[in-house]
C-alpha cells in the first residue's frame, strides 16, 4: 500500500476512508501474505491528520472525521496480516501513529527526516489510544517525556528509543521491507493477544472519544488558533 | 536444583511433578536460603515441554500435563525463595519460561547456546502467562516482536534485550550463581508485590487455560503436524 | 523550591507539611511557570523519610506522618506544573521517590552520590505506590531487581537504567535545570493522562495504606530493629 495524497499524504476523511477500504480488501484476500505501508511522495511518509478537516467544519462532520481516524487505527493495529511500515520520509503526529500500528518499522537513514507524536507542539493533547500505542512501543517513561515535549526524533534517535526497529539507506527502504516481510512466514495469534487489551479499550470508549474530540476541536479558542496557524503557513509559502 | 532428565531435560509430566515436589520441599525448609536452578546435562539447560506428552494422548492426560506446567510456573514465579537461573546451555520455549520465573539469570557466554520463546516456529501460540512473564522481563514491544517471530537469541543478544542479566564464561556459571545468590541476604516481599497481579491472572483463569490447551492440542490438524515434526526429527537422527 | 532541613533534608512530618503548603501555593499561582526542586545542603538532595518519625511514636502520630508522605507524593506526582528535580547530592529512599515524581531529573555527575529505593536494605518493603512510580520510570524488570536488592545507583548507573535523564557537572545542575525548564513552554495534559491510573490507585486505597504502614511500623520487632539501627548510627558518629 503506497500512500499517495499530494502534497504530503495528509489524512483527510476521504483518504482515511480509502485506506480503510484497501486494508479491509487485503484482509479478506486469502492470497495476501501481508502489508507493507510506504509513501509514493518524496520526503514524507505522512504529515498526519489533515488540519483542514478540523477547521470550520460542523460538529457532525468533525465526528465523522474522527470516527474514520479511529477506524484506520482499529483496522491497522488489529490487522491479522503481517504489517511493515517502510518509512521513507518524515512522519509526524498521525503519520507516526500509523507507523506504530505496524509490526515492524524500517526508516530511511536520512537525518532530515523525523518522526514523533508532536501534537503538544500544536496545542493538542494526543488521545489516550495514541498514548497507549506509543507506550506499547517505547514504554511508559519515554512516552510521558515524548508527549509532554511533543518531541520529534531523527532516525538515529528514533532507533535508540525503539520508535523504529531498523535504519537503512534511503534507496533501500523498499528492498529491506520486502526482505523482512519474507522472514515472517506464518500468521500468528500472539500479536492479537498482545494488542487486544489496547484495542478493546478504544472499542468500549469509542463514542465518548468522538464526543471529546468534537467538543474540543469546535471550541472558539481552538478554531481561532487553527486559523492563525493556517495564516502563518500561507505567509510562509509566499 | 540440578535438572537431569536425559537427553535434553524435556519437561515431561513426571519430570514436572518431580520439580514441583522438590521446590515445595525447599519452600517449607526454613534453613533453605534460596534456589539455584541449573542443568546436569551438557549443552542444554532445558529443551522445554516434552512434545511426546502432546502426541497421541487422551484429553484427560493432556489436561493433567498442562496443569503440571501451570503448577511449575506458579510455584517458581511465586516462590518466596531467592531464585537464580544458572543457564549453562540452550533454553528454548518452556526452558526459557522456567529461566524467566527466576529472580536473576546468569547465562554461559557460549554463542552456540540460545534462549527464547520460539513456540511460534512450531505453529503454537504461547499462552497468555508465558507472554505476561516475558513482558515483565523484557517489556511489551520486545515481547511482541519476539513472539511473532518465535525468535531465539544468542547470549549477547539475550543480554542486550534484558532476557538474561549476566554473561559469564561457561565454566564459571555455577561460581557466579553462588556469588550472586550470596549478595541477597534478606527475604523480601517486594518480589511478590511485583508478581502478584500476573500470578492472580493465571490462578483465576486456570481451568479455562487448561481447556484451551486441550482443545487446541487434540485437534486432528495439530496432531498431524506434530506427527510430521517427529518423523522429521527421527530422519535427522539417522 | 530549595530543600533546607539540616543536616540531610530528612522528610519529617513538619518538613513534609511545609513542602505540601509550598507546592499548593505555587500550584494556585497563575504566574508560576513550573517548579525546580533542589537542595540547599551540600552533598545530599534528601536522605528520605525521617526515621525519628517512626521510632517510639503513637499509632495516631505514625498515621499522621504517613498521610503527609502520601500527600507529598500526590501533590508532586499529580502536579499541573512542569517539575524538574535538580539532584545535587545523594537521594536514597524517600529522596529518590521525590525525584521520581518530577517530569525530568538532572543529577550532578559526582560518583560519590547515589540514588535508589533502598528500603529493602533497612528491612522495610517499599509501598505499592513507590513501586508503581519506579515501574513508570524504569520499567517492570529493573524495578523488581532494584527493590529486591535495595539497590543504590551511582549517577552513571542511574542514567543507564533511566532513573535520571541527564548528568551534568556538579556546579551546573542549577543552570541546566533552568535551561531545560525553559524548553517546556506550554502546560500539557498528557502528563496527567499518563499518571492518572497510578494516582487513582493510591487515592482509592489511601486509608488501607495508612493502616498497613502503622501496623507494620509499630510492631515490637520493627521498633527494636529501628532502635538498634539508631544506636549504630550514634556509635558511628562518635
UniProtKB/TrEMBL annotation, chains A, B, C:
A single GO BP: fatty acid beta-oxidation
EC number: 5.3.3.8
Gene3D superfamilies: 2-enoyl-CoA Hydratase, Chain A, domain 1, 6.10.250.170
GO cellular component terms, semicolon-separated: mitochondrial matrix
Alphabetical list of Pfam families matching this protein: ECH_1
Database matches in PANTHER family: ENOYL-COA DELTA ISOMERASE 1, MITOCHONDRIAL, ENOYL-COA HYDRATASE-RELATED
Subunit structure: Homotrimer.
Protein name: Enoyl-CoA delta isomerase 1, mitochondrial
Organism of this sequence: Sphaeramia orbicularis (orbiculate cardinalfish)
Name of the coding gene: eci1
